[in-house]
UniProtKB/TrEMBL annotation:
Keywords: Cell shape, Cell wall biogenesis/degradation, Glutamine amidotransferase, Hydrolase, Ligase, Peptidoglycan synthesis, Transferase. The gene is gatD. Belongs to the CobB/CobQ family. GatD subfamily. This is Lipid II isoglutaminyl synthase (glutamine-hydrolyzing) subunit GatD. Substrate binds at residue 131. PANTHER family: DETHIOBIOTIN SYNTHETASE (PTHR21343), LIPID II ISOGLUTAMINYL SYNTHASE (GLUTAMINE-HYDROLYZING) SUBUNIT GATD (PTHR21343:SF9). GO terms for molecular function: carbon-nitrogen ligase activity on lipid II; glutaminase activity; transferase activity. Forms a heterodimer with MurT. Pathway: Cell wall biogenesis; peptidoglycan biosynthesis. Gene3D superfamilies: 3.40.50.880. InterPro entries: Class_I_gatase-like, CobQ_GATase1, GATase_3, Lipid_II_synth_GatD. The lipid II isoglutaminyl synthase complex catalyzes the formation of alpha-D-isoglutamine in the cell wall lipid II stem peptide. The GatD subunit catalyzes the hydrolysis of glutamine to glutamate and ammonia. The resulting ammonia molecule is channeled to the active site of MurT.
Length: 235
């Protein structure tokens, strides 16, 4: 029996789940176990309510434009809950399509405007007959951590004023191919175009999210062991 429990909301996990993004949840469960924590998961999808009080951590994966359009019709119903979750500094990981839907809008590959919920201040444009595909490496200047992954997206995302990049592009395309940023950080929300999935190759980020969720839920607990957990570097 684990000493701690955390409950994860997998937002639209039945619709936005490309390129093995669900592996992020397996990675979180793997590291949670090492942190004496049981991580339980519920998919919250179309026509279901999202109560932020029920969850400690959230994951929102990527998908095709078609599925994103479907989700964009339902997600306004969850906007208040997501906004509250973020304002309470609960950690969330949003990848690719999920990342785009947290922003203002995404112009799909066929020029269609897919509205986001604007809880983060970025927007995403399209590109003509091109996708950013390939291996990517970025570095987060604040933590000194280097993240490796694989990107595959049409969208070109531009960050808002109160968002920081997840990292600076060392190789690959990143948010838009121009400004050398990749992903976004706002409060405890981590966004990225990395598939692969990001947390299986970059355990430091998984640890950061789990530790924050544990500190939120168990403010008086001694989390020394969890804090000292060593993550094997990846290449
Ligand atoms: N459909 C979006 C794009 O092409 C998101 C892709 C994804 O989630 N991999 O930019």
């Amino acid at each position: 029996m684990a000493t701690y429990t955390l409950h994860l909301a997998h937002l639209y996990g039945d619709l936005l789940n490309t390129y093995g993004d669900v592996g992020n949840i397996l990675a979180l469960q793997y590291y949670a176990k090492k942190m004496d924590t049981e991580l339980t998961v519920d998919v919250i999808s179309m026509e279901e309510s999202f109560n932020p009080d029920d969850f400690d951590i959230a994951f929102f994966g990527g998908g095709q434009d078609y599925e994103q359009m479907i989700v964009s019709r339902d997600i306004p119903n969850k906007k208040n809950g997501i906004e509250q979750f973020i304002s309470e500094n609960k950690p969330m990981l949003a990848i690719c399509g999920g990342y785009q839907l947290l922003g203002h809008y995404y112009i799909g590959a066929d020029g269609e405007k897919i509205p986001g919920i604007g809880v983060l201040d970025h927007y995403t444009l399209s590109q003509n007959n091109n996708r950013f595909i390939g291996n990517i490496t970025i570095k987060n200047e604040d933590t000194g951590e280097t993240y490796h992954g694989f990107e595959n997206h049409n969208g070109r995302t531009f960050l808002g004023t109160d968002e920081k990049a997840l990292g600076t592009v060392i190789s690959g395309h990143g948010n838009n191919g121009d400004d050398h940023t990749e992903g976004a950080i706002y409060k405890e929300v981590f966004c990225s175009y990395f598939h692969g999935p990001i947390l299986t190759r970059n355990g430091e980020l998984a640890k950061r999210m789990l530790l924050k969720a544990l500190k939120n839920k168990y403010p008086d607990a001694d989390l020394t062991k969890q804090t000292n957990l060593q993550i094997q570097p990846t290449f």
